[in-house]
Specification:
Blueprint (H helix, E strand, L loop, with lengths): L2 H22 L10 H25 L1 H12 L16 H63 L2 H28 L2 H6 L1 H16 L2 E6 L8 H22 L3 E9 L2 E8 L11 H12 L3 E6 L5 E8 L2 H6 L1
Helix pairs in contact: 1-2, 4-5, 4-9, 7-8, 8-9
Bound molecules: adenosine-5'-triphosphate and magnesium ion.
């Protein structure tokens, strides 16, 4: 039924009931009106209005649900659809809305995938340039300094050795940044080693105790999914270091039937009412990209827990 006929029908029911009451009930209206008759008429009007409001509320409930969903819809949490029954105007509206969400979600997933792969290749390029250009020049400077220190008079030697030390630290920092930009260890040693190295790196540089328990063995996730797991772990650890006031973080990678689960859980103050920023939305986009589930919420013993569930490729899922 179209919206027009739906509203018209609801009003017709109420007005018809009122007319029937007037016809069959022993009601008389005098001119000028008598007080008791006025009370009966006003009472009747109130009943009619209440009945009309109740029927309209029930009749328009699907539209309320639609408005609610429009306000809360989030393309980074896909898959929520409105129930549709019947074939009338409202059902067509709901079905069209659901179809629009299908289209928007798949376009969003495609554009996120494009943006993420552009971002990763840009990071690879910067990492390569840092390593090959800046790293090489700094290594050359380091060698020059060493040669100069060897030949320098005693009073200059200490200064040159100090410069050498500073250059060495900067070189380490450049290498660390390059490694973060492009986790080469992921390609060379696999996900488990990459996560272990990441945990060690965070523990060293933030003072947090990072307990890494990663199931060893091949994860069979594929390169794209492994990179997503790594990046989510990286952002979750960065967030813990920046916002959580935590002392300990547990980083776990578990294999469960049909999936691999990454969990980063801290013992800090939790997210409270903080709003999600670019970091968490980036995690959601990455999860969407590989059709993984991402749950962010309080941990069982306080703090924050970030859990990424990556489904294994289909044949793998069956075998598991
Ligand atoms: N482990 C955590 N413990 C407590 N609060 C957290 C934690 N992780 C995130 N938050 C809160 O959630 C907010 C959003 O995090 P998000 O990573 O999206 O953005 P951000 O870290 O502020 O900025 P960036 O875009 O650089 O990541 C943070 O500002 C912080 O208030
Ligand atoms: Mg962040």
């Amino acid at each position: 039924m179209s919206l027009f006929w739906r509203i018209f029908g609801l009003n017709a029911v109420v007005l018809g009931a009122a007319t029937a009451l007037l016809l069959w009930a022993p009601v008389t209206v005098s001119v000028p009106v008598v007080l008791t008759e006025a009370v009966v008429l006003v009472g009747g009007l109130v009943v009619m209005l209440v009945a009309n409001a109740a029927l309209l509320r029930i009749g328009l409930a699907p539209l309320d649900r639609l408005t609610q969903r429009m306000v809360t819809v989030d393309l980074l949490r896909p898959g929520h659809r409105l129930p549709v029954d019947g074939r009338g105007g409202v059902a067509v509206l709901l079905r069209t809305f659901n179809e629009m969400l299908d289209r928007l979600e798949s376009e969003r997933a495609a554009s996120s995938a494009r943006a993420l792969s552009a971002q990763e290749s840009e990071r690879r390029r910067i990492a390569r340039e840092l390593h090959d250009e800046v790293g090489q020049s700094m290594t050359a400077v380091l060698l020059e300094l060493k040669r100069a220190a060897d030949r320098a008079p005693k009073d200059l030697r200490a200064d040159l050795q100090h410069a050498q030390e500073t250059t060495r630290q900067s070189l380490d920092e450049v290498r660390r940044i390059a490694r973060r930009l492009r986790p080469g260890v992921l390609d060379d040693l696999g996900l488990t080693s990459a996560l272990t190295a990441l945990a060690t790196d965070y523990a060293t540089h933030t003072g947090l105790t990072v307990r890494c328990r990663c199931d060893s063995g091949p994860s069979d996730l594929g390169a794209a999914a492994e990179l997503v797991v790594y990046r989510v772990a990286q952002e979750a650890l960065t967030n813990t270091a920046r916002h959580a006031d935590a002392r300990t973080v547990d980083l776990t990678l578990r294999r469960v039937p049909g999936a691999v689960v990454l969990e980063v859980r801290d013992d800090g103050r939790g997210m409270g009412r903080a709003r999600e920023g670019a970091g968490i939305r980036g995690m959601r986009e990455r999860a969407l990209f590989i059709e993984a589930g991402l749950d962010i919420g309080p941990g069982p013993t306080g703090g924050l827990s970030v859990r990424l569930t990556v489904p294994l490729p289909r044949e793998e899922g069956k075998a598991a």
